[in-house]
Design a protein that fits this description.
Helix 4 runs parallel beside helix 5 and helix 8 packs across helix 10. It is globular, with a radius of gyration of 21 Å. The two termini are 32 Å apart. The protein has a single domain, classed as Amidase signature (AS) domain (Amidase signature (AS) enzymes), CATH 3.90.1300. It is built from 14 helices and 11 strands. Strands 1-3-2-4-6-5-10-11-9-7-8 form an 11-stranded mixed beta sheet, sandwiched between helices. The protein is an alpha/beta fold and 454 residues long. Bound molecules: glutamine. InterPro entries: Amidase, Amidase_CS, Amidase_dom, AS_sf, GatA. Heterotrimer of A, B and C subunits. This is Glutamyl-tRNA(Gln) amidotransferase subunit A. Pfam families: Amidase. Its EC number is 6.3.5.7.
Length: 454
Protein backbone atom coordinates (compact mmCIF):
# COMPACT_ATOMS: atom_id res chain seq x y z
CA UNK A 1 0.00 0.00 0.00
CA UNK A 2 2.82 2.34 0.82
CA UNK A 3 4.30 1.53 -2.59
CA UNK A 4 0.97 2.31 -4.26
CA UNK A 5 0.66 5.58 -2.35
CA UNK A 6 4.14 6.53 -3.48
CA UNK A 7 3.34 5.67 -7.06
CA UNK A 8 0.23 7.86 -6.88
CA UNK A 9 2.33 10.71 -5.48
CA UNK A 10 4.74 10.11 -8.32
CA UNK A 11 1.92 10.93 -10.71
CA UNK A 12 2.26 14.60 -9.81
CA UNK A 13 5.92 14.59 -10.82
CA UNK A 14 5.41 12.32 -13.85
CA UNK A 15 8.50 10.41 -12.75
CA UNK A 16 7.26 6.95 -13.74
CA UNK A 17 6.18 5.79 -17.19
CA UNK A 18 4.99 2.41 -15.90
CA UNK A 19 4.44 1.35 -12.26
CA UNK A 20 5.17 -2.23 -11.19
CA UNK A 21 4.64 -2.20 -7.39
CA UNK A 22 3.78 -5.90 -7.47
CA UNK A 23 7.38 -6.65 -8.46
CA UNK A 24 8.74 -4.64 -5.53
CA UNK A 25 6.37 -6.44 -3.17
CA UNK A 26 7.44 -9.79 -4.59
CA UNK A 27 11.09 -8.98 -3.86
CA UNK A 28 10.25 -7.79 -0.36
CA UNK A 29 8.34 -11.03 0.33
CA UNK A 30 11.13 -13.17 -1.08
CA UNK A 31 13.56 -11.36 1.22
CA UNK A 32 11.27 -11.88 4.22
CA UNK A 33 11.04 -15.59 3.42
CA UNK A 34 14.85 -15.81 3.27
CA UNK A 35 15.17 -13.97 6.55
CA UNK A 36 12.66 -16.35 8.19
CA UNK A 37 14.70 -19.33 7.03
CA UNK A 38 17.92 -17.72 8.27
CA UNK A 39 19.34 -17.56 4.73
CA UNK A 40 21.75 -14.86 3.62
CA UNK A 41 20.02 -11.85 2.10
CA UNK A 42 21.22 -10.26 -1.11
CA UNK A 43 23.09 -6.98 -0.93
CA UNK A 44 19.93 -5.19 -2.10
CA UNK A 45 17.54 -7.62 -0.39
CA UNK A 46 13.97 -6.29 -0.59
CA UNK A 47 14.95 -2.77 -1.66
CA UNK A 48 12.36 -1.24 -4.03
CA UNK A 49 14.12 0.65 -6.80
CA UNK A 50 13.16 2.67 -9.84
CA UNK A 51 14.52 1.53 -13.21
CA UNK A 52 15.30 4.13 -15.86
CA UNK A 53 13.18 3.15 -18.86
CA UNK A 54 16.32 2.70 -20.95
CA UNK A 55 16.99 -0.76 -19.46
CA UNK A 56 15.23 -3.67 -21.13
CA UNK A 57 13.00 -5.43 -18.62
CA UNK A 58 11.49 -8.77 -19.61
CA UNK A 59 7.72 -8.59 -19.83
CA UNK A 60 7.59 -4.87 -18.95
CA UNK A 61 7.28 -2.17 -21.60
CA UNK A 62 10.63 -0.52 -22.41
CA UNK A 63 10.37 2.73 -24.36
CA UNK A 64 13.47 4.93 -23.93
CA UNK A 65 10.70 7.57 -23.57
CA UNK A 66 10.16 7.48 -27.33
CA UNK A 67 6.95 6.98 -29.29
CA UNK A 68 8.88 4.68 -31.63
CA UNK A 69 9.24 2.10 -28.83
CA UNK A 70 5.78 2.57 -27.34
CA UNK A 71 4.29 -0.86 -26.71
CA UNK A 72 7.64 -2.65 -27.04
CA UNK A 73 7.88 -5.39 -24.41
CA UNK A 74 11.27 -7.12 -24.44
CA UNK A 75 11.61 -10.87 -23.98
CA UNK A 76 14.93 -10.33 -22.26
CA UNK A 77 16.35 -8.59 -19.23
CA UNK A 78 19.31 -6.20 -19.30
CA UNK A 79 22.37 -7.50 -17.46
CA UNK A 80 22.41 -4.59 -15.02
CA UNK A 81 18.75 -4.99 -14.03
CA UNK A 82 19.20 -8.77 -13.77
CA UNK A 83 22.21 -8.21 -11.48
CA UNK A 84 20.04 -6.02 -9.26
CA UNK A 85 17.25 -8.62 -9.07
CA UNK A 86 19.87 -11.26 -8.28
CA UNK A 87 20.98 -9.06 -5.37
CA UNK A 88 17.40 -9.05 -4.08
CA UNK A 89 16.12 -5.65 -5.30
CA UNK A 90 12.58 -5.28 -6.65
CA UNK A 91 11.30 -2.97 -9.37
CA UNK A 92 8.85 -0.25 -8.39
CA UNK A 93 8.48 0.90 -11.98
CA UNK A 94 10.08 2.25 -15.15
CA UNK A 95 11.26 5.84 -14.83
CA UNK A 96 10.80 8.70 -17.27
CA UNK A 97 13.82 10.14 -19.09
CA UNK A 98 14.78 12.28 -22.04
CA UNK A 99 13.92 10.51 -25.27
CA UNK A 100 16.74 8.02 -26.01
CA UNK A 101 18.60 9.76 -23.14
CA UNK A 102 19.13 12.84 -25.32
CA UNK A 103 18.71 15.94 -23.24
CA UNK A 104 19.57 17.71 -20.01
CA UNK A 105 16.11 18.50 -18.60
CA UNK A 106 13.85 15.50 -19.27
CA UNK A 107 11.82 17.72 -21.61
CA UNK A 108 12.41 15.60 -24.73
CA UNK A 109 10.40 12.65 -23.34
CA UNK A 110 7.42 11.52 -25.42
CA UNK A 111 5.66 10.90 -22.10
CA UNK A 112 5.89 14.50 -20.94
CA UNK A 113 8.39 16.30 -18.79
CA UNK A 114 9.20 15.35 -15.22
CA UNK A 115 8.73 18.01 -12.54
CA UNK A 116 11.44 18.45 -9.92
CA UNK A 117 10.18 18.18 -6.35
CA UNK A 118 12.27 21.29 -5.59
CA UNK A 119 11.01 24.90 -5.79
CA UNK A 120 12.92 28.15 -5.56
CA UNK A 121 12.48 29.99 -2.30
CA UNK A 122 11.01 33.49 -2.23
CA UNK A 123 7.56 32.90 -3.66
CA UNK A 124 8.57 31.99 -7.24
CA UNK A 125 6.41 28.99 -7.98
CA UNK A 126 7.97 28.00 -11.32
CA UNK A 127 8.25 24.26 -11.98
CA UNK A 128 11.90 23.32 -12.26
CA UNK A 129 13.65 20.77 -14.45
CA UNK A 130 14.86 17.66 -12.60
CA UNK A 131 17.85 17.55 -14.96
CA UNK A 132 18.34 14.97 -17.66
CA UNK A 133 18.43 12.57 -19.13
CA UNK A 134 17.84 10.59 -15.90
CA UNK A 135 15.18 13.07 -14.73
CA UNK A 136 12.62 10.50 -13.61
CA UNK A 137 15.35 8.83 -11.53
CA UNK A 138 16.50 12.07 -9.89
CA UNK A 139 12.96 13.30 -9.16
CA UNK A 140 11.84 9.94 -7.75
CA UNK A 141 14.84 9.56 -5.42
CA UNK A 142 14.82 13.21 -4.41
CA UNK A 143 11.08 13.09 -3.58
CA UNK A 144 11.72 9.86 -1.65
CA UNK A 145 9.37 7.89 -3.90
CA UNK A 146 12.08 5.23 -3.95
CA UNK A 147 15.38 4.96 -2.07
CA UNK A 148 17.45 4.47 -5.20
CA UNK A 149 17.20 4.28 -8.98
CA UNK A 150 19.31 3.34 -11.95
CA UNK A 151 20.62 6.00 -14.26
CA UNK A 152 22.74 6.09 -17.37
CA UNK A 153 25.37 8.67 -18.20
CA UNK A 154 26.60 9.34 -21.73
CA UNK A 155 27.60 12.96 -21.17
CA UNK A 156 26.41 13.76 -17.67
CA UNK A 157 22.97 12.18 -17.40
CA UNK A 158 23.56 10.72 -13.94
CA UNK A 159 25.59 13.59 -12.49
CA UNK A 160 23.66 16.64 -13.71
CA UNK A 161 20.19 15.42 -12.60
CA UNK A 162 21.70 14.32 -9.26
CA UNK A 163 23.12 17.82 -8.80
CA UNK A 164 19.80 19.49 -9.74
CA UNK A 165 17.84 17.50 -7.15
CA UNK A 166 20.24 17.21 -4.21
CA UNK A 167 21.00 13.51 -4.53
CA UNK A 168 24.13 11.45 -5.21
CA UNK A 169 24.96 9.67 -8.45
CA UNK A 170 28.06 7.96 -9.79
CA UNK A 171 29.05 7.08 -13.32
CA UNK A 172 31.63 4.32 -12.97
CA UNK A 173 34.59 3.72 -15.26
CA UNK A 174 33.44 2.93 -18.81
CA UNK A 175 32.93 -0.84 -18.99
CA UNK A 176 32.17 -1.46 -15.29
CA UNK A 177 28.43 -1.94 -15.90
CA UNK A 178 27.34 -4.00 -18.84
CA UNK A 179 25.61 -2.16 -21.68
CA UNK A 180 23.83 -5.35 -22.72
CA UNK A 181 20.10 -4.70 -22.82
CA UNK A 182 20.49 -0.95 -22.35
CA UNK A 183 18.98 1.00 -25.25
CA UNK A 184 22.07 2.37 -26.99
CA UNK A 185 22.63 6.11 -27.39
CA UNK A 186 26.39 6.56 -27.98
CA UNK A 187 27.99 3.20 -27.33
CA UNK A 188 31.55 4.40 -26.66
CA UNK A 189 30.25 6.70 -23.91
CA UNK A 190 27.14 5.03 -22.43
CA UNK A 191 27.57 3.82 -18.88
CA UNK A 192 25.04 2.85 -16.23
CA UNK A 193 25.27 3.78 -12.56
CA UNK A 194 23.30 4.27 -9.36
CA UNK A 195 21.41 7.38 -8.21
CA UNK A 196 20.64 7.33 -4.50
CA UNK A 197 20.37 9.38 -1.33
CA UNK A 198 24.01 9.17 -0.31
CA UNK A 199 27.46 7.83 -1.10
CA UNK A 200 27.04 4.62 0.91
CA UNK A 201 23.85 3.67 -0.92
CA UNK A 202 25.58 4.37 -4.23
CA UNK A 203 28.49 2.11 -3.23
CA UNK A 204 26.13 -0.72 -2.26
CA UNK A 205 24.07 -0.41 -5.42
CA UNK A 206 27.05 -0.06 -7.76
CA UNK A 207 28.52 -3.29 -6.33
CA UNK A 208 25.27 -5.00 -7.28
CA UNK A 209 25.10 -3.49 -10.79
CA UNK A 210 28.70 -3.89 -11.94
CA UNK A 211 30.57 -6.92 -13.22
CA UNK A 212 32.05 -8.53 -16.29
CA UNK A 213 29.56 -9.57 -18.95
CA UNK A 214 30.67 -11.58 -21.97
CA UNK A 215 27.61 -10.27 -23.84
CA UNK A 216 29.10 -6.74 -23.91
CA UNK A 217 32.30 -6.54 -25.98
CA UNK A 218 33.51 -3.49 -24.02
CA UNK A 219 32.73 -4.94 -20.59
CA UNK A 220 35.66 -4.75 -18.14
CA UNK A 221 36.96 -8.16 -17.20
CA UNK A 222 37.94 -7.18 -13.68
CA UNK A 223 36.57 -8.25 -10.29
CA UNK A 224 34.09 -5.87 -8.65
CA UNK A 225 35.79 -4.31 -5.60
CA UNK A 226 34.02 -4.19 -2.24
CA UNK A 227 33.38 -0.48 -2.45
CA UNK A 228 31.07 -0.30 0.55
CA UNK A 229 33.59 -2.01 2.84
CA UNK A 230 36.32 0.25 1.48
CA UNK A 231 34.52 3.53 2.30
CA UNK A 232 36.79 5.88 4.25
CA UNK A 233 36.38 9.64 4.56
CA UNK A 234 39.89 10.16 5.89
CA UNK A 235 41.80 11.69 2.98
CA UNK A 236 45.18 12.03 4.67
CA UNK A 237 47.91 11.54 2.10
CA UNK A 238 45.51 12.12 -0.83
CA UNK A 239 45.92 14.89 -3.36
CA UNK A 240 42.91 16.66 -4.85
CA UNK A 241 43.42 18.44 -8.16
CA UNK A 242 41.59 21.67 -8.96
CA UNK A 243 41.50 22.12 -12.76
CA UNK A 244 42.09 25.77 -13.52
CA UNK A 245 40.36 25.60 -16.92
CA UNK A 246 37.05 24.82 -15.21
CA UNK A 247 37.11 28.22 -13.51
CA UNK A 248 35.61 29.88 -16.53
CA UNK A 249 35.12 33.60 -17.10
CA UNK A 250 31.73 34.64 -15.87
CA UNK A 251 31.30 31.59 -13.70
CA UNK A 252 28.23 31.93 -11.49
CA UNK A 253 29.40 33.33 -8.12
CA UNK A 254 27.39 30.80 -6.14
CA UNK A 255 28.87 27.90 -8.10
CA UNK A 256 32.36 29.29 -7.50
CA UNK A 257 31.59 29.60 -3.79
CA UNK A 258 30.32 26.02 -3.51
CA UNK A 259 33.50 24.85 -5.27
CA UNK A 260 35.57 26.76 -2.66
CA UNK A 261 33.47 25.18 0.11
CA UNK A 262 34.26 21.74 -1.34
CA UNK A 263 37.98 22.53 -1.39
CA UNK A 264 37.80 23.52 2.28
CA UNK A 265 35.89 20.36 3.24
CA UNK A 266 38.41 18.12 1.49
CA UNK A 267 41.28 19.94 3.24
CA UNK A 268 39.47 19.38 6.55
CA UNK A 269 39.36 15.67 5.68
CA UNK A 270 43.16 15.69 5.41
CA UNK A 271 43.65 16.07 1.65
CA UNK A 272 46.26 18.25 0.03
CA UNK A 273 44.85 20.50 -2.68
CA UNK A 274 46.88 21.08 -5.85
CA UNK A 275 46.36 23.25 -8.91
CA UNK A 276 46.19 21.20 -12.13
CA UNK A 277 45.66 21.93 -15.81
CA UNK A 278 43.36 20.19 -18.30
CA UNK A 279 44.30 22.31 -21.31
CA UNK A 280 41.86 20.87 -23.86
CA UNK A 281 38.76 21.33 -21.69
CA UNK A 282 37.22 23.94 -23.97
CA UNK A 283 37.09 21.49 -26.88
CA UNK A 284 35.29 18.78 -24.92
CA UNK A 285 31.75 20.03 -25.45
CA UNK A 286 32.04 20.47 -29.25
CA UNK A 287 33.79 17.08 -29.54
CA UNK A 288 31.05 15.42 -27.49
CA UNK A 289 28.30 16.97 -29.61
CA UNK A 290 29.92 15.47 -32.71
CA UNK A 291 30.80 12.02 -31.36
CA UNK A 292 27.57 11.36 -29.44
CA UNK A 293 25.22 12.24 -32.35
CA UNK A 294 27.46 10.31 -34.80
CA UNK A 295 27.13 7.14 -32.75
CA UNK A 296 23.45 7.82 -32.10
CA UNK A 297 22.67 8.15 -35.80
CA UNK A 298 24.16 4.71 -36.33
CA UNK A 299 22.50 3.12 -33.29
CA UNK A 300 19.07 4.50 -34.17
CA UNK A 301 19.09 2.95 -37.64
CA UNK A 302 17.59 -0.20 -36.12
CA UNK A 303 14.25 1.51 -35.41
CA UNK A 304 12.70 0.83 -38.77
CA UNK A 305 9.12 -0.14 -37.97
CA UNK A 306 9.92 -3.81 -38.55
CA UNK A 307 11.65 -4.98 -35.41
CA UNK A 308 10.35 -2.99 -32.45
CA UNK A 309 7.33 -1.03 -31.22
CA UNK A 310 5.68 1.43 -33.58
CA UNK A 311 4.85 0.67 -37.23
CA UNK A 312 3.14 3.25 -39.44
CA UNK A 313 1.93 1.53 -42.60
CA UNK A 314 0.02 4.01 -44.75
CA UNK A 315 -2.56 2.58 -47.21
CA UNK A 316 -0.79 0.97 -50.17
CA UNK A 317 2.64 1.94 -48.82
CA UNK A 318 5.82 0.11 -49.73
CA UNK A 319 8.72 -0.72 -47.42
CA UNK A 320 10.50 2.63 -47.89
CA UNK A 321 7.31 4.57 -47.17
CA UNK A 322 6.78 2.48 -44.05
CA UNK A 323 10.31 3.26 -42.80
CA UNK A 324 9.85 6.96 -43.48
CA UNK A 325 6.40 7.19 -41.93
CA UNK A 326 7.39 5.24 -38.83
CA UNK A 327 10.55 7.24 -38.20
CA UNK A 328 8.92 10.60 -38.97
CA UNK A 329 6.16 9.86 -36.49
CA UNK A 330 8.16 7.88 -33.92
CA UNK A 331 11.22 10.04 -33.25
CA UNK A 332 10.93 13.34 -31.38
CA UNK A 333 12.53 16.60 -32.61
CA UNK A 334 15.71 16.33 -30.49
CA UNK A 335 16.30 12.77 -31.69
CA UNK A 336 15.88 13.89 -35.29
CA UNK A 337 18.29 16.77 -34.70
CA UNK A 338 20.91 14.31 -33.42
CA UNK A 339 20.38 11.96 -36.39
CA UNK A 340 20.83 14.89 -38.79
CA UNK A 341 24.01 16.09 -37.04
CA UNK A 342 25.34 12.55 -36.77
CA UNK A 343 24.82 11.59 -40.40
CA UNK A 344 26.26 14.94 -41.49
CA UNK A 345 29.51 14.58 -39.53
CA UNK A 346 29.89 10.99 -40.72
CA UNK A 347 29.23 11.79 -44.39
CA UNK A 348 32.14 11.24 -46.80
CA UNK A 349 32.69 14.96 -47.43
CA UNK A 350 32.80 16.02 -43.79
CA UNK A 351 34.11 12.96 -41.96
CA UNK A 352 37.68 14.25 -41.69
CA UNK A 353 36.70 17.78 -40.81
CA UNK A 354 34.35 16.84 -37.99
CA UNK A 355 34.21 13.23 -36.82
CA UNK A 356 37.89 12.42 -37.24
CA UNK A 357 38.90 15.74 -35.71
CA UNK A 358 36.59 15.14 -32.74
CA UNK A 359 38.16 11.72 -32.18
CA UNK A 360 41.61 13.35 -32.07
CA UNK A 361 40.33 15.90 -29.56
CA UNK A 362 38.92 13.05 -27.50
CA UNK A 363 42.37 11.45 -27.34
CA UNK A 364 43.90 14.76 -26.22
CA UNK A 365 41.30 15.13 -23.47
CA UNK A 366 42.02 11.61 -22.21
CA UNK A 367 45.74 12.47 -22.23
CA UNK A 368 45.10 15.67 -20.23
CA UNK A 369 43.52 13.55 -17.50
CA UNK A 370 46.30 10.96 -17.59
CA UNK A 371 48.85 13.70 -17.08
CA UNK A 372 46.80 15.38 -14.33
CA UNK A 373 46.53 12.09 -12.45
CA UNK A 374 50.32 11.95 -12.16
CA UNK A 375 49.89 14.98 -9.87
CA UNK A 376 46.72 14.14 -7.94
CA UNK A 377 44.46 11.25 -6.89
CA UNK A 378 41.05 12.79 -7.64
CA UNK A 379 39.78 15.97 -9.26
CA UNK A 380 37.18 18.31 -7.75
CA UNK A 381 34.98 20.56 -9.90
CA UNK A 382 31.39 21.77 -10.02
CA UNK A 383 28.93 19.30 -11.56
CA UNK A 384 27.12 21.98 -13.60
CA UNK A 385 27.42 25.68 -14.32
CA UNK A 386 24.06 26.46 -12.66
CA UNK A 387 21.43 25.20 -10.26
CA UNK A 388 18.22 23.72 -11.74
CA UNK A 389 16.58 25.93 -14.36
CA UNK A 390 12.85 26.33 -14.92
CA UNK A 391 11.00 24.02 -17.30
CA UNK A 392 10.77 25.64 -20.72
CA UNK A 393 13.75 27.93 -20.08
CA UNK A 394 16.09 26.33 -22.58
CA UNK A 395 13.84 24.33 -24.89
CA UNK A 396 13.90 26.90 -27.71
CA UNK A 397 17.71 27.09 -27.72
CA UNK A 398 19.45 23.71 -28.03
CA UNK A 399 22.90 25.29 -27.67
CA UNK A 400 22.12 26.80 -24.28
CA UNK A 401 20.83 23.37 -23.24
CA UNK A 402 24.04 21.68 -24.46
CA UNK A 403 26.17 24.24 -22.58
CA UNK A 404 24.79 22.91 -19.31
CA UNK A 405 26.89 19.76 -19.89
CA UNK A 406 30.19 21.63 -20.05
CA UNK A 407 31.68 20.22 -16.82
CA UNK A 408 30.25 16.73 -17.29
CA UNK A 409 31.39 15.68 -20.75
CA UNK A 410 35.21 15.65 -20.32
CA UNK A 411 35.10 12.69 -17.88
CA UNK A 412 32.68 10.91 -20.24
CA UNK A 413 35.00 11.34 -23.23
CA UNK A 414 37.87 9.95 -21.15
CA UNK A 415 35.76 7.06 -19.78
CA UNK A 416 36.60 8.00 -16.18
CA UNK A 417 34.55 7.43 -13.03
CA UNK A 418 32.81 10.61 -11.88
CA UNK A 419 30.27 11.37 -9.21
CA UNK A 420 28.05 14.24 -8.14
CA UNK A 421 27.47 14.78 -4.43
CA UNK A 422 25.19 17.38 -2.84
CA UNK A 423 27.11 20.42 -1.63
CA UNK A 424 24.46 22.54 0.04
CA UNK A 425 21.87 25.00 -1.24
CA UNK A 426 22.22 28.28 -3.13
CA UNK A 427 20.61 31.55 -2.05
CA UNK A 428 17.32 30.49 -3.67
CA UNK A 429 17.27 27.28 -1.65
CA UNK A 430 18.17 25.03 -4.58
CA UNK A 431 20.71 22.20 -4.35
CA UNK A 432 24.16 22.47 -5.90
CA UNK A 433 26.35 19.50 -6.74
CA UNK A 434 30.08 19.00 -6.65
CA UNK A 435 31.77 16.61 -9.02
CA UNK A 436 34.62 14.26 -8.20
CA UNK A 437 36.46 12.71 -11.14
CA UNK A 438 38.76 9.74 -10.55
CA UNK A 439 41.40 7.67 -12.28
CA UNK A 440 40.16 4.78 -14.40
CA UNK A 441 39.01 1.91 -12.14
CA UNK A 442 39.34 4.07 -9.00
CA UNK A 443 35.67 4.33 -8.05
CA UNK A 444 36.85 3.85 -4.46
CA UNK A 445 38.85 7.07 -4.49
CA UNK A 446 35.85 8.92 -5.95
CA UNK A 447 33.42 7.49 -3.38
CA UNK A 448 35.78 8.29 -0.50
CA UNK A 449 36.21 11.91 -1.55
CA UNK A 450 32.42 12.11 -1.92
CA UNK A 451 32.00 10.74 1.59
CA UNK A 452 34.27 13.48 2.90
CA UNK A 453 32.03 16.10 1.26
CA UNK A 454 28.55 14.81 2.09
N1 LIG B 1 22.82 16.08 -21.98
C1 LIG B 1 23.68 15.26 -22.77
C2 LIG B 1 23.05 14.99 -24.11
O1 LIG B 1 21.99 15.44 -24.33
C3 LIG B 1 24.02 13.99 -22.06
C4 LIG B 1 22.93 12.98 -22.09
C5 LIG B 1 23.32 11.70 -21.43
O2 LIG B 1 24.31 11.63 -20.69
N2 LIG B 1 22.56 10.67 -21.73
O3 LIG B 1 23.60 14.33 -24.93
Amino acid sequence: EAFNANVAAAGALNAFIVATPEKAIEAAEATDAKRAKGEALGKMGGVPIGMKDLFATAGVQTTAASHILEGFTPQYESTVSQNLWNAGAGMLGKLNLDQFAMGSSNETSYFGNVISPWKRGGGDNASLAPGGSSGGSSAAVSARLCPAATGTDTGGSIRQPAAFTGITGIKPTYGRCSRWGVVAFASSLDQAGPMARDVTDCAIMLESMAGFDPKDATSLNMPVPEWEAGLNADLKGKKVGIPREYRMDGMDAEIAKSWDDGIAWLKDAGAEVVDISLPHTKYALPAYYIIAPAEASSNLARYDGVRYGLRDLPEGAGLQDMYAATRADGFGPEVKRRIMIGTYVLSAGFYDAYYNQAQKVRALIARDFEHAFTQCDVILAPTCPSAAFALGDKTSDPLSMYLNDVFAVPASLAGLPAMSVPAGLNSEGLPLGLQIIGKAFDEQGVLNAGLAIE
